[in-house]
Amino acid sequence: LEADYHAEVLVLGSGPGGYTAAFRSADLGKKVVLVERYSTLGGVCLNVGCIPSKALLHTAKVITDAEDAAHHGVTFGEAKIDLDGVRKFKEGVVGKLTKGLASLAKARKVTVVTGKAQFTGARTLEVETSEGKKVVSFENCIIAAGSQSARIPGFPYDDPRLLDSTTALDLKDVPKRLLIIGGGIIGLEMATVYDALGSKVTVVEFMDRLIPAADPDIVKPLARRIEKRYEKILLNTKVAKLEAVANGLRATFESAKGGEAAPAPEIYDRVLLAVGRRPNGKAIAADKAGVNVDERGWIPVDNQMRTNVPHIYAIGDIVGEPMLAHKASHEGKLAAEVIAGMTHHVWEARTIPSVAYTDPEVAWMGLQEPEAKAKGIEYEKAMIPWAASGRAIGMAREEGATKILYEKGTRRILGAAIVGINAGELIAETVLALEMGADAEDIGLTIHAHPTLSETVYFNAEMVEGTITDLM
Ligand code: FAD
């Protein structure tokens, strides 16, 4: 069978993993084909994930900042929300970035083939394009087919009132009452958006706390703020049944611990299911290429992103947690470089930061205290409440906190957890410190601009060193 396209490096999927891998491969001189089922590049992150959610969160922040301003002498009146305008802003943001990607692909002479793809052999892939089936043959392949929203069996998925993150980002309307199933990052970010736009939000979480992956100490300030704003936060609770009724979706709650009483059933105008994501490993006929996929859809890889088939690599959400864009792009670059023969500098990141872009933001990296305790790792720690930060006080946002774990004795940075506005930006300094093996003294000797929130990292280091004098 004659192939329609031939690639030295074929990349399947154009998310942050796939486009990074494709661009890096092209820059390293390879003939690259990038296959994507959707008409725009960028994958989940650019089209229906990171980017549109952050655009809507910006709008939400403008609304809540205006509300908060009333506490310090400035009143703007009630927000008038033109949903078309909000949507247009979000779509403009996405459009700028996806167009940018398309031109970057063109500039690098990456051939983009649009259509759903399946492996047909160890060196061939078939793509269902709008002009019929096309065959792509390849020397090396990087699978970057990502993930999709996980589902709970038995829910009424054909009812448009049941949303997933993609339909929630479409912002068709602002429901009066919204139930969000899942108190993780995606659920709470969407809660932040809809709460600001005027929905009465209820969040239900199976575990005993919100954002279970984060240190409870830094989730508390977020929980305190949203408990006041939202209708209800139900912890240790699951939705056992969800039924379509005339005036909404009826949720039946059950205690996650079994036996204990749960709240009575309630009817909501909309329900957003945000209970995690599952990898797309089962939907690409990987077996035809001989690539192992586990029963949940993950593709196992080694530390050079190689699958069990030596010329086929996999990266991003499809290979494992954490399912984050910056992890995917890091792995994409790595796979491209390994294919180009640059195995000499395979470098493993010491940490991958996580950020919930809620209000306040919650960010963490490296070793977290619950894990240190569970593993019996010795550490020193300090936690700086932002009530000690002049900058935070000046912005009326002193609910934040900066917590850092240090290696016992050497006081090298092991991990950090920050809650507060801009925590997602502040965590970067601690990631760099960890990667560079910096200790508390290094940070304490580094001059930080005053007054900034970044000083809370510096105060923290000084506190653990016992040299703190200049709080505020
Ligand atoms: P994806 O982005 O999932 O891309 C995979 C691509 O492969 C898709 O375009 C898909 O269409 C294509 N594909 C799959 N199968 C086929 C096939 N058979 N044929 C052709 N094409 C195929 N991460 C962050 O780091 N920060 C955030 O703020 C953030 N916010 C998020 C908000 C939401 C609402 C969601 C849902 C996710 C968010 N994420 C965030 C996660 C982030 O989007 C993912 O980690 C990231 O997109 C993974 O990149 P990837 O390259 O592995 O795959």
TrEMBL record:
It is an enzyme of class 1 (oxidoreductase). The active site is at H450. FAD binds at K54, D317, M323, L324, A325, H326. Binds 1 FAD per subunit. GO terms for molecular function: dihydrolipoyl dehydrogenase (NADH) activity; flavin adenine dinucleotide binding. Coiled coil: none annotated. It catalyses: N(6)-[(R)-dihydrolipoyl]-L-lysyl-[protein] + NAD(+) = N(6)-[(R)-lipoyl]-L-lysyl-[protein] + NADH + H(+). The keyword Amino-acid biosynthesis does not apply. Keywords: Disulfide bond, FAD, Flavoprotein, Lipoyl, NAD, Nucleotide-binding, Oxidoreductase, Redox-active center. Belongs to the class-I pyridine nucleotide-disulfide oxidoreductase family. The active site is a redox-active disulfide bond. This is Dihydrolipoyl dehydrogenase. It comes from Usitatibacter palustris. The chain holds residues 139 to 610 of 614 of the full protein.
